[in-house]
Amino acid sequence: MSRFLNLFIIFIFLHAIAAAQTNSTPITIGQSVTLWSDILQENRNINIYLPEDYNAADTVTYPVIFVLDGGIEEDFFHIAGIVRFNTQPWIARFPRSIVVGIENTNRRRDFTFAVPNTDFIEKAGFKKSSFPQYGKSAKYIGFLEKELQPFLRKNFHTNEQRTVIGESLAGLLATEILLRHPQLFSTYIIISPSLWWDDESLLNTPVTASHTRVYIGAPNKAEDKRMYEDAVKLYDHIKSTKNIKAVFDYLPEELHSTVIHQAVYNAFKQLYPKTALSQ
Q1: Residue 279 belongs to some domain of the structure
Q2: How far apart, in whole angstroms, are the C-alpha atoms of residue 157 and residue 143?
Q3: Total-model pTM
Q4: What is the pLDDT of residues 99-134, one digit of tens each?
Q5: What whole-number distance in Å separates Cα of residue 165 and Cα of residue 171?
Q6: Residue 39: closest CA among 126, 148, 117, 121
Q7: 147, 174 in Cβ contact below 8 A?
Q8: Cβ of 20: how many Cβ atoms within 10 Å?
Q9: What pLDDT is attached to residue 214?
Q10: What does the H/E/C string look like for 241-267?
Q11: Fewest CB within 10 A of the end CB: N or C in the chain?
Q12: How far apart are CA 182 and CA 67, in angstroms?
């Protein structure tokens, strides 16, 4: 019996030595910074993915892709993965890019614009109490324009090609920026936008954007017919505008909760249809 016990002890000892000699290296795809905002009067966590050949000593500049729901527990990781995949040299659908994810603190407050009353909220099927804070998108847009974008220009090699990705309430914000502050981004990926806010009043805003790409994605219309119809109305509102490349994409196999990953992949595929093999 002692012989087997001794063999067992030797096995455990050798296994422990082998485990101790195993090297492990963390997998790192980016960095997180905390940025104080004078406009918002709070800290904002910003997650940043840099292309694998990024070198701070180089003069090469990169497009920037902004993810509005960009927290670690939100959409940052999988959007960064889609970007990394599409920018590999054997695909080269579009240039290698920096991905910037903005972590939320109160998206219902930040992504909705000011309104004279909120009677429309219950008409849209929500309780007014579910929006205890709202209507501060002007401040959030100011944060993007006057604080975040300058911070990125100062600290990273960025260029003027900027994309914004927003879904649901973040899609509402992306639509507001497209129609009211179009100069902030050159490409807009807008997915199932919550245009029901203020009874679709955004759709009354004239389109002034130019030299702009816009992708509008909508999930299965049986789940939310109004949201689908609003996405169609937005597309109809902008599609005939000169110097805007607009794409509408209906994804019947996706729900509101699942659409963003496939829609973002489709957006890059349709806005940048050429790959390394087709160029």
Answers
A1: no
A2: 20
A3: 0.91
A4: 999 999 999 999 999 999 999 999 999 999 999 999
A5: 7
A6: 148
A7: no
A8: 7
A9: 98
A10: CCCEEEEEEEECCCCCCCHHHHHHHHH
A11: N
A12: 17
In the predicted structure, residue 1 carries a pLDDT above the cut 60: no
φ and ψ at residue 110, rounded to 5 degrees: -80, -30
What CA–CA distance (Å, rounded) separates 142 from 229? 30
Percentages helix, strand, coil for the chain (3-state, rounded to 5) are 40, 20, 40
* Interatomic CA distance for residues 112 and 172, integer angstroms: 7
Contact 177, 164 (CB under 8 A): yes
For the record, the structure tokens of 113 come out as: 């614009």
What DSSP element (H or E) covers 12?
helix 2-21
> Into how many domains does the chain fold?
1
Contact indicator for 147, 34 with CB cutoff of 8 Å: no
DSSP label at residue 207: P
Q: Tell whether 22 is covered by a domain.
A: no
Q: Which of 188, 133, 144, 182 is nearest to 166 (CA)?
A: 188
SS3 at position 267: helix
Domain range for 156: 29-271
Answer whether residue 260 is part of any domain.
yes
Look at residues 99, 95, 96, 107 and name the one whose alpha carbon lies nearest to residue 47: 99
Q: What is the pLDDT of residues 198-248, one digit of tens each?
A: 999 999 999 999 999 999 999 999 999 999 999 999 999 999 898 999 999
